[in-house]
Automatic annotation (TrEMBL):
GO terms for biological process: DNA integration; DNA transposition. Gene3D superfamilies: Ribonuclease H-like superfamily/Ribonuclease H. GO terms for molecular function: DNA binding. InterPro entries: RNaseH_sf (IPR036397), Transposase_Tc1-like (IPR002492). It comes from Trichonephila clavipes. This is Transposase Tc1-like domain-containing protein. Pfam families: HTH_Tnp_Tc3_2. Residues 2-74 form the Transposase Tc1-like domain. Transmembrane segments: none annotated.
Amino acid sequence: MKRHIIREASKNPFVSAITLANDVTSTSGVQICAQSVRNVLHDVHINGRSPRKKPLITERNKLKRLEFAKEYINKPIDFWKNVILRRE
């Protein structure tokens, strides 16, 4: 039963403990509570995850960045000698 919980949590790190408990109950027929699932996962150092609410970069920004890169890709070396690069 512990191996099943660990395997399912490894396949999908965003699945909830309640869902895992229901899955174990339906497959093995043994009633298990969500806290027991959390304890098993905690023992093997698998912590909770939550999915991101939005993508890291929007489609619009992808296109703008690509356009910027294409604009400056073929600039001559003399152009880059006059550019001041800095970290913000």
